[in-house]
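Lab manual, section 2.4: Encoding a predicted structure.

Procedure: take the sequence of the chain (222 residues), apply the prediction step described in section 2.3, and record the output as structure tokens. A sample record is shown.
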Amino acid sequence: MKREDGTWIPGVLAEPSIRPDTKVTSRSSETTNVTCLLLEEGLSACLNPEGEILRRALVGQIVLAVEIRGIGQTAPSGKHWYNERFGINGGNAMIAYLLGKSLVGLRSEDCLVVARWLAQQTGSQTINMVASGEAAIPALHVAALEPGLINKLELRRCLESWSELTHTPLSVNQVAGLVHAALPVYDLPDLAALLGDRLTMKEPLDGRGRPKLSESGTVLGD
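Recorded output:
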């Protein structure tokens, strides 16, 4: 897949031997069998014999796994920007900010390009999306803004709210997930509310990148 600027988005498309019916006529009908994977672990984790691509294809799903910018093959190498706690994409996020953009916005564009391509390629009206880690916040934006395209969204290890960062003195690996001046307008839970039961959250994270715990001490969404 190509972005508008001509750069490629690495991806792998897997189809079951018997292609399923991908059309969904309404939200109340059975969910679509077309899934897009946007995993922070990258394609290598998806492609191993026990990876998610094979597991989903074996149960009849059409699966597209991609690496949006800054993940997998396009992840930065070398030293971290200033400090390891800013994450490997902290420098990329700052460059985007200096150019008047956000890495979240740029990655959301990647997610949207991929989702539209997959729907067109399969003839499906809607697709499901699964995103983890740094890919989760961009995917949340796309699903909230394109309800006619994203049927179900599953987020894994996603920051629960930007507001939490305001009272986390030493946040860890959050720079890549920030949108400048967003909080006066909206927060991540506002986007989640737009999705309602279309959203599943697994292992939401606090500002230090640790799993949120329930009152009983168990991991939320596990």
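Check your result against the sample. Confidence is low (pLDDT under 50) at residues 24-30.
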